[in-house]
């Protein structure tokens, strides 16, 4: 099977597996796991942040970060196409008593400043209104096709937030993809956020975990919330050791995934019955539509899977393909050939 379902399907490298065998272990809830401590120091340093906390998942990292920033009864401003709003089970409302205010998401992943401004009441003393306490950005933006937020835009949002005395949290699940695409040190992206979440288990190929990073005081709160949510882990160095290898060895190779994504987009765009703008592909995510009336999005996915290629649906009938370390140039060619044959022969 060629699995374009997500970059979460990546398997750890042999070096990561070897690191698990030799990890120094301790009880991480008490801060005694040396391997976790090393990972957290490395991640914080790479992002230019004061501190970091190893989390079981990106969902928990985002949730704990939001809860650490936002008082109960306040609002978190999120894109209406963001993963936080759509795919994270409403955790901030359920666990934190925090109101989500969805902001219109532009095709390139931006939340326009004038749309953000509408979420702030004219009279903040009016007791009828829940007040915004956090702005969340997503970079790269999943449902917008792996779009990278421009640095100039990040600076504008940071200045906007500072004027209103609210912090910015970045759901940077694929922030290293953004840094590679911009050919910048990841610090140059993270500097425009007060806190950042990124995933070790997507394109970086570690088997488990994400990182929440920010100021020391913020991470102290995150660590306490992690425990409350059931994310306090014991000998977690077994999971952290591959993360260290991932940060040392997997970032530079992400450019290869981006090139393969372009190759896939180029191939699919030439097929009758497929609608795809190659110019919109910036990182490792390719989103396209099937315009052949013989297929629904569901029948397209089922037929492709029956022929050895797994894609996913990404809302509004769109199809998503995520390129990752285990997808080769030959795999791209084969996937394009399968889709081309499907468009010629029809479903099943």
Task: Describe the protein's architecture and organization.
By secondary structure, this protein is of the alpha/beta class. 41% of the residues lie in helices and 16% in strands. Strand 5, helix 7 and strand 6 form a beta-alpha-beta unit. Helix 1 (14-21) packs antiparallel against helix 11 (237-249). The radius of gyration is 21 Å and the shape is globular.
Record the SSE blueprint.
Elements: E1 2-3, H1 14-21, H2 34-47, E2 51-55, H3 58-69, E3 75-79, H4 83-86, H5 91-96, E4 99-103, H6 113-117, E5 132-138, H7 151-163, E6 168-171, H8 175-182, H9 187-190, E7 195-199, E8 210-214, H10 216-228, H11 237-249, H12 254-269, E9 274-275, E10 285-290, H13 297-306, E11 309-310, E12 312-313, E13 319-322, H14 329-345
Parallel strand pairs: 1-11, 3-4, 3-5, 5-6, 6-7
Antiparallel strand pairs: 2-8, 7-8, 9-10, 10-13, 12-13
Helix pairs in contact: 1-11, 2-11, 3-10, 12-14
Strand content: 15-25%
Rg is 21 Å
Distance between the termini: 17 Å
- The assigned structural class equals alpha/beta
Largest sheet: 7 strands, mixed
Note the total helix count.
14
The percent range for helix content is: 40-55%
Strand order of the largest sheet: 2-8-7-6-5-3-4
Q: What do the pLDDT scores average to?
A: 97
**Unreliable runs, pLDDT <50, ≥5 residues?**
none
How would you describe the shape? globular
How are helices and strands ordered from N to C? EHHEHEHHEHEHEHHEEHHHEEHEEEH
């Amino acid at each position: 099977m060629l699995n374009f379902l997500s970059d979460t399907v990546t398997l750890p490298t042999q070096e990561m597996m070897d690191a698990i065998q030799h990890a120094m272990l301790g009880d991480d809830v008490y801060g005694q796991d040396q391997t976790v401590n090393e990972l957290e120091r490395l991640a914080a340093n790479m992002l230019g942040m004061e501190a970091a906390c190893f989390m079981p998942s990106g969902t928990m990292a985002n949730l704990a970060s939001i809860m650490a920033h936002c008082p109960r009864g306040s609002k978190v401003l999120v894109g209406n196409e963001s993963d936080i709003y759509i795919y994270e089970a409403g955790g901030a409302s359920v666990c934190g008593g925090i109101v989500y205010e969805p902001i219109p998401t532009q095709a390139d992943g931006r939340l326009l400043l004038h749309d953000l401004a509408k979420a702030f009441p004219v009279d903040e003393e009016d007791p009828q209104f829940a007040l915004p306490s956090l702005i969340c950005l997503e970079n790269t933006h999943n449902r917008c096709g792996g779009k990278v937020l421009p640095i100039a835009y990040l600076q504008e949002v940071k200045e906007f937030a500072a004027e209103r005395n609210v912090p910015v949290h970045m759901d940077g699940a694929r922030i290293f993809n953004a840094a590679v695409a911009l050919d910048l040190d990841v610090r140059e992206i993270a500097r425009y956020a007060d806190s950042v979440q990124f995933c070790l288990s997507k394109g970086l190929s570690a088997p488990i975990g994400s990182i929440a990073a920010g100021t020391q005081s913020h991470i102290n709160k995150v660590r306490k919330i992690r425990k409350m949510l059931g994310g306090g882990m014991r000998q977690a160095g077994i999971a952290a050791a591959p993360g260290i290898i991932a940060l040392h060895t997997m970032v530079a190779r992400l450019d290869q995934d981006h090139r393969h994504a372009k190759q896939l987009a180029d191939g699919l765009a030439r097929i009758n019955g497929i609608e795809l703008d190659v110019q919109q592909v910036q990182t490792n995510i390719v989103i396209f539509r099937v315009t052949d009336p013989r297929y629904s999005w569901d029948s397209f996915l089922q037929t492709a899977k029956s022929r050895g290629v797994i894609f996913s649906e990404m809302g509004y009938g769109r199809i998503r393909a995520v390129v990752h370390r285990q997808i080769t140039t030959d795999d791209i060619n084969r996937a394009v050939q399968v889709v081309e044959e499907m468009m010629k022969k029809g479903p099943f």
